[in-house]
Amino acid sequence: MSEELRFGRVFVTVGSTQFDQLIFAVHQQSFLETLHSLGVQELRIQYGKGRFFPLEEDGGKLKVESFRYKPSIVEDINWADLVISHGGAGSILESLRAKKKLIIVVNEKLMHNHQMELAEAMVRNGYAFLASTDSLVETLKNADFRELKPLPEPNVFPVVTVLLQEVSFTE
Amino acid sequence: MLMEVGVVLSGALALVLFLLFWSTYKEYSDIRRYRQNISTSANWSVWQEKDFESWRNQLPCMEGREVSLFVVLGSGGHTAEMIQILQAFGRHGLDSFCVHGKVTYIVASSDPHSMVRARCLHEKNGVLASYSYQFLVIPRSRYVGQSYFSSIFSTSYSLVVSWWKIIVGTEAPDILLCNGPGTCVPIVLITFVRNVVHRLLQKRRTRIVFIESVARVHSLSLSGRILYPLAHRFLVQWPELRDKYPRVEYIGLCL
């Protein structure tokens, strides 16, 4: 972990799924300590369908808040410096579009679900890091976030052209 | 006498069936040929704003023409993608070209959230403010957890209602735009059948545009696979899909 890249705020999201292993993992003392050593001051957790874990201590020196759902998590993504996501398409794209560093944590239960296709593609292309619930702390400590490439800007012109071609299509 | 009437009637029936069959075949093979030509000629990966601008400036003027779009709003992520595509269309496609028109949104009855999001596009400062809009509400064909047996009935009910609302209630639009989950399959099938009939009657036919979700990287979604032979344009956002399916257009990430 480089000296110059420090995170102030971290947002953990599981979307509308139940992913208690991740929520549990981010409540572990070792995780919170690692965050603190990286300079994190605030942690926000969206725990979806899962159980609510009350924090046993006060999170050490971190300010921790949790919520189940919000109509939109865009605000929380913009608020954060680092997003830890369950790998849903919405949260992946919103995080990368907002130019946030992203760690995707795979839910082994959904391993072969097509929902993971996008997550795998993002990791393969170097836009995000992949971790499991067990390796999350390790990944945070060792990953060099400067290696992550920005997601290419979307190009809307092909689809607009296709639509205009079809509107003006005459046989 | 009775026998002669019978012969004439069955002859007429046979003729109608033959015409429908022929028209279906023509429609299908036209789509296939059109897609084949386009997917070999189109290279969207180098298509940027300036290419688009100069291409659009050469289009013939369509002043006074009302553009009519049908848009299927799936739910959740599918709706979000579709709204972004419509925003791009409104922002870049509308100036000096198809300025006026109407959008008909097809939404499931269980999905008020999609209606709210669509309405936002047409508000005073929305990108589609110059377009009028309406909603066609279709009963949902299957609820999460519903048994397969009872879903046979609800699916047929949904199909009949969609059929009635689309065929009887609307004129054929210019474009049917869909990106999504199961809801769009019956809508496309109905539109295809209408196209077959309109080919015989020499009336306006609808162009079907399918955009595969960004979340599909290696394989098409189930609705994508079903609609693959029926769409006039089939757009995908990942190169893996272009290498796998010969008649798709790879447009890169568009959102």
TrEMBL record, chain A:
> Where is the protein localized?
Endoplasmic reticulum
Signal peptide range in chain numbering:
none
Q: What class of enzyme is it?
A: transferase
Q: Where is the Glycosyl transferase family 28 C-terminal domain?
A: 10-142
Kindly give the InterPro entries that the UniProt entry links to this protein. Answer: Alg13-like (IPR039042), Glyco_trans_28_C (IPR007235)
EC number, UniProt record: 2.4.1.141
Similarity-based family: Belongs to the glycosyltransferase 28 family.
This one is known as UDP-N-acetylglucosamine transferase subunit ALG13
Q: Which organism is it from?
A: Galdieria yellowstonensis
From TrEMBL, chain B:
Molecular function in Gene Ontology: N-acetylglucosaminyldiphosphodolichol N-acetylglucosaminyltransferase activity
What domain of life does the native source organism fall in?
Answer: Eukaryota
Where is the protein situated, by its record's location annotation? Endoplasmic reticulum membrane
Supply the name of the protein: UDP-N-acetylglucosamine transferase subunit ALG14
Give the organism, scientific name.
Galdieria yellowstonensis
Bilayer-crossing residues are 6-25, 148-167, 179-197
Which GO biological process annotations does it have? Answer: dolichol-linked oligosaccharide biosynthetic process
Task: For this UniProt record, give its keywords in alphabetical order, as a comma-separated list.
Answer: Endoplasmic reticulum, Membrane, Transmembrane, Transmembrane helix
What is one cellular component GO term in this UniProt entry?
A: UDP-N-acetylglucosamine transferase complex
Membrane topology of the entry: Single-pass membrane protein
Q: Does the keyword NADP apply?
A: no
Entries under InterPro entries matching the protein = Oligosacch_biosynth_Alg14
Principal localization reads: endoplasmic reticulum
Residue spans making up a coiled coil are none
- What family is this protein classified in? Belongs to the ALG14 family.
Question: Is Transmembrane tagged as a keyword?
Answer: yes
